[in-house]
Write a structure and sequence with these properties.
Blueprint (H helix, E strand, L loop, with lengths): L27 E3 L5 E3 H9 L18 E2 L1 H18 L10 H13 L3 H17 L1 H9 L3 H10 L8 H18 L4 H13 L1 H14 L2 H14 L3 H9 L3 H7 L7 H14 L3 H9 L2 H9 L6 H14 L3 H9 L4 H9 L5 H18 L3 H9 L2 H9 L5 H14 L5 H5 L1 H4 L7
Antiparallel strand pairs: 1-2, 1-3
Catalytic activity: S-ubiquitinyl-[E2 ubiquitin-conjugating enzyme]-L-cysteine + [acceptor protein]-L-lysine = [E2 ubiquitin-conjugating enzyme]-L-cysteine + N(6)-ubiquitinyl-[acceptor protein]-L-lysine
GO biological process, one term: protein ubiquitination
GO molecular function, one term: ubiquitin protein ligase activity
Length: about 425
């Protein structure tokens, strides 16, 4: 039986395929190794705690990536050409500006939520295709306000499935467009979403509580984006349920990507003194202690946990909880991470110990725990390491304080013991 004359075979150039997903790349980005991946695929790889290039397995000097605009234009030209030549539509997800404008028009005028859902889904595909598409959408004066209105319409009493799906898609678009956005974009979105405080924050909290993993992560990232200044951080942290829910997300049972997003948000809002006190009162330090005492925690989660703990150590109640809670196990967790994870983690750990044992010295139990857990030997190695000059000086300050609680034999054994400690 012969092949149907309307059937078309399309050969995709291998250069256009993502090495991870093997699909045609929608938003190609290049790592420092020179290998290009689709943005969504490589972001998932990096969010999983990996620090290598998937194709070459080289250790990445930096996890930053750069949009490959040349390849993106080639893929767009090829997909348009395939559509014209074969008499079929371009590959799924490639929409024209005219089609998007029509979808936006119908989204704003249509009353039927199912039809609105269909049009918003098309806009999601368009936004995910490229950075240029996202910029096009964000520059439309009414676009952000339209999304905020859709999100605010979702509340705890909403039973309409289409309305809930609309809200989740709007959150997804905001996360896609504003991720890593400019300060003025964050400020604009923050003002829009916090004008009606109850609506948007209620919807985001519901998405975090009831959504799937991807939805939870997107919602947490949107919360972080709108935590623009001290006022917005305090408004968000005071919204009942948000902080406890995010603290609950930082546990060993949680997906690492959600843990990382939650920690990043908590770090952002902890810039406010009032919020720091709230985080301490909500037992955040207990959660961080459990993370630090877990050996299998990813590098990114460990770094962010230590960074948040460093911020909370500036609070008097926070220091008391770190030093005295559960027999000093939190301090033990900090010492464990010295020289074991990364340079960043070590620098945060040294800063925490410096704050507890040198600057404030309110609780001698912290110094005793550092000595008991072989912290002095590790700090001596830090002094000789490639850490920043400031951190090396902090380590020297700590040695001066801790030597009072350290036997001469420990210090004299430095030269023989440090050969067994390999940083990171």
């Amino acid at each position: 039986m012969g092949r149907d004359e309307t059937e078309t075979y399309i050969t995709v150039p291998s250069l256009f395929r993502c090495p991870i997903s093997l699909d045609v790349m929608r938003s190609p980005v290049s790592l420092c190794t020179g290998v290009t991946y689709d943005r969504a695929s490589i972001q998932r790889w990096l969010d999983g705690g990996n620090n290598t290039c998937p194709a070459t397995m080289q250790i990445l000097r930096t996890k930053e990536f750069v949009p490959n605009l040349t390849l993106q234009r080639l893929i767009k030209a090829w997909s348009d050409s395939v559509g014209r030549r074969a008499g079929v539509s371009p590959p799924r997800g490639v929409l024209t500006v005219e089609e998007v404008n029509e979808s936006l028009r119908r989204l704003s005028l249509e009353k039927d939520d199912e039809i609105r859902l269909e049009n918003l889904s098309r806009i999601v595909r368009f936004a995910k295709d490229s950075e240029a598409n996202r910029e096009f959408l964000w520059k439309r004066k009414d676009f952000a306000a339209m999304l905020v209105h859709i999100i605010a319409a979702v509340d705890g009493g909403t039973r309409a499935t289409a309305k809930i799906k609309l809200g989740l898609l709007a959150i997804m678009i905001l996360d896609t467009i504003i991720k890593g956005g400019k300060e003025r974009d964050r400020e604009r979105l923050s003002k829009l979403m916090l004008t009606d405080v109850g609506g948007c924050l209620t919807a985001l909290l519901l998405a975090i509580q009831r959504g799937n993993l991807e939805t939870k992560i997107e919602s947490v990232r949107v919360l972080e984006m709108i935590s623009f200044d001290q006022k917005s951080k305090e408004i968000i942290s005071e919204r009942e349920g948000i902080v406890p829910e995010l603290i609950k997300s930082i546990s060993s049972e949680t997906d690492p990507s959600l843990m990382e997003a939650s920690l990043s948000f908590l770090i952002t809002i902890s810039a406010s003194k009032r919020v720091r006190s709230k985080l301490v009162a909500e037992k955040t330090i207990t959660k961080i202690k459990d993370i630090l005492l877990t050996e299998t925690t990813s590098v990114a989660v460990t770094e962010k946990s230590l960074k948040l703990l460093e911020t909370l150590s500036s609070n008097r109640e926070g220091r008391s909880e770190i030093c005295g809670g559960d027999g000093g196990r939190c301090v033990e967790g900090v010492v464990r991470k010295l020289l074991k994870v990364s340079a960043t983690a070590t620098e945060h750990a040294v800063t925490i110990l410096w704050c507890l044992c040198y600057v404030f010295r309110e609780d001698k139990r912290a110094e005793e725990t550092v000595v008991r857990c072989n912290g002095v030997t590790k700090l001596l190695v830090v002094i000789q390491s490639s850490c920043s000059p400031v951190v090396r000086q902090m380590a020297k300050d700590l040695i001066k304080v801790l030597k009072v609680n350290t036997s001469a034999s420990v210090l004299s054994a430095y030269e023989t013991n440090t050969t067994h400690i390999t940083p990171f």
